[in-house]
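Possible regression after last week's pipeline update?

I re-ran a chain I had predicted before the update to compare outputs. Posting the input and the new output here so someone can diff against the archived version. Not blocking, just want to make sure nothing changed silently.
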Amino acid sequence: MATYNTKQKGELIEFFKDNKDACFTAKQITEAAPTLPRSTVYRLLEKLCDDGSLKKDADEKTGESVYRYYAKDVCSHHLHMKCLKCGRIIHLNDMESEKIIREINSQSDFKVCIEGSMLSGICKNCM
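New output (post-update):
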């Protein structure tokens, strides 16, 4: 099936690239980008998740679906941390991620897969 790069798709991807340290509900996206119709946002969110451009998670407080930018060529090599208070996403650098993964793997009978991993906690701004 062919995929098309429409103006609206480009606008949504740029929105996420400009806000790559945050997660958004579909409603928040339509409020922040009012030129994008709600039905288009929902359709594009699913397509962008399917192609690996976005990750879909459940909000810890509401259970509502939230979406975040995911650059597979960059983000698949490190861990992410999400603040439970403000929702900010922090990209841990590759070296630090590798140290943590090695430590967990050596101390347990568990192998961590970095791709898509998300640690939850409280960022220094919210402490």
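Follow-up from reviewer: compared with the archived run. The mean pLDDT is 88. Marking as no regression found.
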